[in-house]
Every structure is written in C-alpha cells, then in structure tokens.
UniProtKB/TrEMBL annotation:
HNH nuclease domain residues: 100-160
Bias type Basic and acidic residues, positions: 63-81
Protein name: HNH nuclease domain-containing protein
Annotated stretches, region: Disordered: 63-97
Biased composition (Basic residues): 82-91
InterPro entries according to UniProt: HNH, HNH_nuc
Pfam families in alphabetical order: HNH
Amino acid sequence: MSERSAQAKYCTTRCGEIARGERLPDPLPTRSCALSECGEEFQPYREGQRCCSEKHGKLLYNRESRADGRQKPEPWNDKRRDRYHRRRAQKKQTSTGEPVLLADIAERDGWRCHICGTRVGKKIAWPHPRSASLDHVVPLSKQGPHTPANVRLAHLGCNSSKGNRGGGEQLLLIG
C-alpha cells in the first residue's frame, strides 16, 4: 500500500473537494420511481438508485426476488403458525406462554373438532374447510391469551364461521 493511499481520507480527490466545499457536487438527473404504482419523480442521491424512498426500494426488491426465485417462501408448519399467532397476540397485548403446536393440540383433543364434535382428517390440507386449524376459545381480539389452555382443535370451516365469537367456554386446566 502506498503512503498516499494510507493517508487518504476520501475515495477520490473529487470527493475530498466536495467535502471541503471547494467544489459543488454535480446533481444526478431526476428519475421516476421504478415501483409501478408510484411512478413519482425524484432526485436520486446515488448512482443506481431506482426508487424514491427506502420503503419503495425494499418493496420492489422483495417483489422481484420472489418472482425470480431468489426468495423462497417458508413452508407453513407448526413453528411458522406459532410465530404468526404469537405476533397477533403481541399486537393485541395479550399473554403468550409456551409454544402452541398444532400436532400437540390435535393429539390432546383426540383429533376431534371442539365446535362440531366430528373427526378432523390428519391428511386434509389447508385451505380445505375440513382441514385442521387452531381455535382460540377466548379470541385474541378479545384479549384471550395464546396458550395451550386457550387453544382447541377445530375444522377450518367451523373455525371461520365462528369468527371471534366465544369466550363463554371454560378454559382447560393443564397442570
């Protein structure tokens, strides 16, 4: 490494002159936002800037990377379902306890829908109305906790038709 580059404060002399106020930076030409629903004209602050804001840039990147396969969607499994419900519970400022896993709840409830009382098929996949889903006895929207004691197995169709009605049932006492 040369003595000059070890002491250099700026990447180029032009950058140094701009920083010291000896030279004005040349403005980049205005562009329109690459996000299709925006299209707003903006003044870019760096080369290669495609969007008017960081938010639009991230949105565009996510769309493009999902479309060309760089981002693969995470499979909908017990872990992802639990994270989803925990996040919902946190937004409603209700409690979250130990992880609530569909397989554990289904085994505990004997693979029976607690709303209609009929069997829930183990191999029926979402979005079939007879597929397995978790029903909060006291709904999260009514400050019910996201805990195993407040969750029952239900058919997706039964659970959807029930909506956020409920809360009169007794919670399980799990010791």
